[in-house]
Amino acid sequence: xxxxxxxxxxxxxxxxxxAAIRCAQLGLRTACIDKWINKQGEPALGxxxxxxxxxxxxxxxxxxxxxxxxxxxxxxxxxxxxxxELDVPAMIAHKDQVVRDLTNGIKMLFKANGIHWLxxxxxxxxxxxVEFTPLAGGAPQxxxxxxxxxxxxxxxxxxAAAPVDGELIVDSTGALEFTEVPGRLGIIGAGVIGLELGSxxxxxxxEVVLLEAQDTFLYAADQQIAREALKHFKRQGLEIHLxxxxxxxxxxxxxxxxxxxxAEGDHEIKVDRLVVAVGRRPYTDGLIAPECELLLDxxxxxxxxxxxxxxxxxxxxxxxVCGGPMLAHKGSEEGIAVAERIAGMHAHVNRETIxxxxxxxxxxxxxGRTEEKLKAAGVPYRAGTFxxxxxxxxxxxxxxxxxxxxxxxxxxxxxxxxxxxGPMVSELIHEAVVAMEFxxxxxxxxxxxxxxxxxAEVVHEAALAVDGxxxxxxx
Length: 475
Prior knowledge:
The protein has twelve helices and 21 strands. It is an alpha/beta fold. The chain folds into three domains: about 5-155 and about 280-350, 3-Layer(bba) Sandwich (FAD/NAD(P)-binding domain); about 170-280, FAD/NAD(P)-binding domain (3-Layer(bba) Sandwich), CATH 3.50.50.60; about 355-465, FAD/NAD-linked reductase, C-terminal dimerisation domain (Enolase-like, domain 1), CATH 3.30.390.30. Strands 1-2-3-4-5 form a five-stranded mixed β-barrel. Strands 7-14-8-9-10 form a five-stranded parallel sheet, covered by helices on one side. Strands 17-18-21-20-19 form a five-stranded antiparallel sheet, with helices on both faces. Helix 3 (about 55-75) packs parallel to helix 5. The longest helix has 25 residues, at about 90-110. The mean pLDDT is about 95.
């Protein structure tokens, strides 16, 4: 007889483990299947984000930023250190410890909430059944469930012209495990992952070259912000080539030759290591039995409606595997919403107010529509901008790069989009998210008292600027 559950979740990344916890909180008998094995060879929860994505990359970004600031930023402020040494293995060990602490934390949450953690792979069968194959071996088991949540996430896209060998040519996971700083690092892709990884190793001393096939830098971002970002990244020493399509790679004993084509013709560069960071694809390998007739779209994403229902009764999908922005927080909110719908509650995910963040220096963040999208849609708007260079707190921190830009409807003044580049905008963006969630106007932000001195005053001044009345900037 098959084991029976109210809910079976396949995948324990930010979408899956959060969905499992919320289901258990709501009194549903819940099992979560996951096959992740960490670098220590042990089963681990948290998926890509916690193990080889969001969390370890931020640990390295923070460490590399502190190292760079110690060498290049603090001397001008009266702090000098002699004989500064970089210990890359220790840096990697710190990153690994952060990951272990957080993944073990999820393990404790599963135990506290009575979730059955099934270590192995899950395969969707028909009639609300799941085939579970244990990592430890043994015969597959069939589980029955009233509801099944597919949350298997995504994996790096492979590039035929640059096959990953795990040594000289690596994907984003491999770029988190270097034990020494490459002399020259090549990165294919200048999106979020490429820029963050490039920033880490550039700060630590590598010469970094990014090859981006798109002609437009950060095409999804507001282009005024993107142009500002490109200017700062080039000043930092990141060599960024746009419209550069990689045509071939050749790995030698200690280097890689990369051939690419752009508007000016064919080129070759030689690098010590090469990172392939051209995006991610939905991970559905081995997930679906053919008889299920689960619908996928033309890009391989699981087809879902606005409430994350698939075409099969009782089968749901959340996170990267069902499309939309590939963001951990988007997957988590979808997981919570699905759990609450299963329990008969009302739930809603506002996909118009999902914040986007790039954790470079300066940081980049935005929510809502860009100026380009508003123009294309014919929406009347007004824009207000204000620079961090005119902010007292940013001056005191010696972090004056960037600006805040607010776009508001020209007739109703409702905030339509907020775009930022500057210090700590990964935190500042949430004021804009809350404002938009409550349908605020730029006048609402302009009349909200902000502490002084604070970086958030730049948001305040940008709101004032929508109406042409910024205080700390000459007309």
